[in-house]
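Reposting from the mailing list since nobody answered there.

I have sequence plus structure tokens for a pair of proteins and want to know whether others read the tokens the same way I do. The first protein:
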Amino acid sequence: MEKKRLTAVKAKIRQITNGKYMPQEGFNPNYVLAKNGVRLSRVRLLATVVDKFVAESGKFASITLDDGTDTIRAKIFNALSLLETVNTGDIVYTIGRVKEYQGEIYIMPEVIMQCQDPNIVTLFELEIRQQMDEWKRKREIVLEHKAQVSDLAELKRFLRERFGIDEEEVEGIMASSENEEEDVEEKNNKQKVLELMVTLDAGQGCDYTDLIAQSGISEEDVDSVVNELLEEGVCFEPKPGKIKKL
């Protein structure tokens, strides 16, 4: 079966870095699920090169791209000719695949071109804005109709026939909506644990077992929240089994 080449989606860097990386099985391409539900697997970026690195071995190089929303690295292995004419300070048009390694989301570029026409920058921003508006419209339609059908398969069929919305777009929007609900629940859990941590602290810290018993949250979720708070430096362990807010 002939392999279909993915369309490169125009994107802002923050959409990529603020999204959730979704590794896939088999030949299905990995992608980042952006907050608004867009699947970003192959992207087009327009950004300024703020750093360039070339390894002495000549087998690896990278540039750091900044488009005003965030930064991301483009990594090149072996085919370093892509960067021969690229220097720090250049505005470049980059097409590449979104990858992830050891928690870092980066771009594996296929094309890097210098952009010297300011009109291209303006046009790119306008196209991004139009794209965002169109996706917002689709997202509103999907979320408006999701409760009116029996299941996801029926929803995808209805939206494809009635509004011409692609099935993968529906899946992305639904997945991002579920992620939003999980984020809200996680935020609420964190707030509840913090408040209880203070309420149950008699001076030497809050007893961990009391925190679990009175929070109404599963031990696994409490443990996850506490670990996150410890990493953020919001609380500390004065002694084993005790948690105290700073």
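The second protein, same order (residues first, tokens after):
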Amino acid sequence: MTSFLELAEKRRSVRAYKPNVVPGALVNQVLEAGRLAPSACNKQPWRFIVVKDEAIRRSLGTAYAREWFWKAPVILAVCILPGDAWTRPHDGRNYAAVDGAIAMDHITLAAADVGLGTCWIGAFDPAVVRDVLNLPDGVAVVGMTPLGFPDTEPSPRVRSRRPLAETVMQERWG
């Protein structure tokens, strides 16, 4: 059995996908992981959109102009509903984006666990995505990811990570 740290190390941003259909059971397993993600006060202010239709995927490609993005057999959009999310009373900070990001992270890790590739996309034109997906008012897309079988074996991590000692700002005990 793979440990969580091994799974986190295994997950990569995949930018080349086989055209093979992703079985519905695998898509559902990945979505279930997103559904199980924690959220502030258990509000679960997310919704997932599964795009398999090539014409719609191509249209989403106008919001993020990378051919590999829309050529994946599935695109998942993680939407958030800020009006349904918990808001911190001390400063009014709405947690919809945080909750949606946690759900997206669960999705990408679950996909890696079952041999599927993903690539978290945030650099898209939100107005185009809103139009293509015909989103109602009060719904925003926090991120999208292509989903499919990697066309090549993901390479070992190229980008280094900061050492743990550089990421822990301070420790307080006692």
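Reply #1 (J.P.):
I read it the same way you do. The chain has seven helices and three strands.
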